[in-house]
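dumping this here before i forget
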Amino acid sequence: MAISCGKQGFLLWPAFHTRESTTAFPPPLSLSLKLPPQSHSKVRRVVKMSATEVTSSRISYESFAIKPPEHPTYDLKGIIKLALEEDAGDRGDVTCLATIPFDMEVEAYFLAKEDGIIAGIALAEMIFHEVDPSLKVEWSKNDGDFVHKGLQFGRVRGRAHNIVVAERVVLNFMQRMSGIATLTKAMANAAYPAYMLETRKTAPGLRLVDKWAVLIGGGQNHRMGLFDMVMIKDNHISAAGGVADALKAVDLYLEQNNLQMEVEVETRTLEEVEEVLHYSSQTKTSLTRIMLDNMVVPLPNGDVDISMLKEAVQLINGRYETEWFVDSFCESTRRLPQN
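structure:
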């Protein structure tokens, strides 16, 4: 995931990889059926989002507390259908068909089994609607809210069979997203006033979901894919003949194709930082951010050496946004340069 501080710092960190954290990942959740329903009293401070309000196959994000990131081709509804289909196979839920009366109606409750940031509520709404638009879903929390162990934070009412069919898919998404959001929140708090960004190291097919969870946890999104930002890395630099040549090639490509987008370049040494700064001082460039790669050096005692990173930030001196990468979460994050 990456760290950003205005014009000064971004810290890259894979979307949900950590080595040092006491937070359970993912925070376990459960959905408990109440058979038969004994009470239909409203949940206190309920945020009500009835699935029956969705009347079109087109997804509207307007009612979501935190909207998913934009992607030109990603089919979120298709991902939901795929998740349900891989669970149902070609026969459906044979256990439910054998044991649960078709017309039985129940009430089920969402229960947090650990403290953490809840994420995936809006996606759960979409899944329940896909299975059965008549299901009634209510929440006492929104995406991004803190939940404590033992809290009942939502309920769903309707046909027992359909609730059970949706249950595991809903919980799988919510636990994954809540885990990402919880760890993101912890890292974002540690890095403040810098910002946390994620990378493209997401599970194939789940990129938008994973990046959505980062937003819910208080992080920010890096590029969605290969299409929405130029990111010049070591392979591109080697192929182009050097960091300045790579930047020159990118500037020419963007001009010839009338494209305007952010441009980031990876630097691995102070010499490369100086080369980038020299190029940009001599030429009009689309460069917006400089990545300082491998400049946070882990030490055997678990601390980090940031001397080279601090020198690089001082060289850049606010002329461009800066970004750096860490692959573990520890208290040393607090010592990273913020300006």
